[in-house]
């Protein structure tokens, strides 16, 4: 990344219902571990073994940490668009203006077009999104498409207009 950054956005999962589910599951499982493994009482009508309960608790806890660390980072620079979905992309993926045929903002239906949020493939190409229904649509010279979700559509639109003017 050598050229000037003209737009930068970092998004994280902030959906209250997702965190309610993850916190609730972690709380329930920690209660179960403390009751069964530490307290010696069976947890539930058909209790799992201590090992299974500890494994499930660890898995849900690690899944929660993974969701906490997810972030979509977008950079628009004078030489192109950089994007990464951490922790799946360790480094930024770079799309130069030369390989981008069209670039515009659009509204989209995350579930209807791509089946939800995250790293997705749908009937309109690939998507990287975390929340909302606004995105930067990239159409490439090879006819591939990539939608990058944004929560700063107005700011990004102004940057794209400025770049198109140059």
Write a structural description.
Pfam families: DUF6141. The chain crosses the membrane at residues 16-33, 53-70. Keywords: Membrane, Transmembrane, Transmembrane helix. InterPro entries: DUF6141. With 166 residues, the protein is α+β, with helices and mostly antiparallel strands. It folds into two domains: 5-11 and 76-165, no CATH class; 16-69. It is 37% helix and 33% strand. The protein has helices at residues 16-38, 50-69, 110-114, 153-165, and strands at residues 5-11, 71-77, 80-86, 93-96, 100-107, 118-122, 125-129, 134-140, 145-149. The strands form two sheets. Strands 5-8-9-7-6 form a five-stranded mixed beta sheet. It has a four-stranded antiparallel beta sheet with strand order 1-2-3-4, covered by helices on one side. A hairpin with a 6-residue loop joins β3 (80-86) and β4. α1 runs antiparallel to α2 (50-69). It is elongated. It starts with a strand and ends with a helix. The mean pLDDT is 91.
Weakly predicted, low-confidence segments: none
Helix content: 25-40%
Percent strand: 25-35%
Enumerate how many helices there are, as a single number: 4
* Largest sheet data: 5 strands, mixed
Task: Please count the beta strands (DSSP E, at least 2 residues each).
Answer: 9
Number of domains: 2
Q: What general outline do the C-alpha atoms trace?
A: elongated
Output the structural class: alpha+beta
**Order of secondary-structure elements:** EHHEEEEHEEEEH
- Across the major sheet, the strand order is 5-8-9-7-6
N/C terminus separation: 20 Å
Radius of gyration, in angstroms, nearest whole number? 21 Å
Give the averaged pLDDT, no decimals: 91
């Amino acid at each position: 990344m050598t050229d000037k950054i003209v737009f930068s956005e970092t998004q994280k999962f902030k959906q209250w219902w997702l965190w309610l589910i993850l916190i609730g599951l972690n709380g329930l499982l920690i209660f179960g571990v403390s009751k069964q493994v530490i307290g010696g009482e069976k947890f539930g009508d058909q209790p799992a073994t201590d090992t299974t309960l500890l494994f499930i608790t660890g898995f849900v806890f690690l899944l929660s940490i993974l969701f906490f660390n997810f972030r979509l980072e977008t950079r628009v620079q004078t030489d192109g668009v950089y994007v990464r979905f951490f922790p799946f992309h360790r480094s930024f993926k770079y799309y130069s203006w030369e390989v981008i045929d069209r670039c515009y903002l659009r509204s989209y239906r995350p579930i209807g077009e791509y089946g939800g949020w995250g790293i997705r493939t749908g009937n309109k190409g690939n998507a990287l999104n975390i929340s909302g229904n606004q995105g930067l649509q990239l159409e490439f010279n090879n006819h591939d498409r990539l939608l990058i979700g944004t929560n700063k559509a107005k700011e990004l639109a102004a940057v794209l207009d400025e770049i198109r003017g140059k």
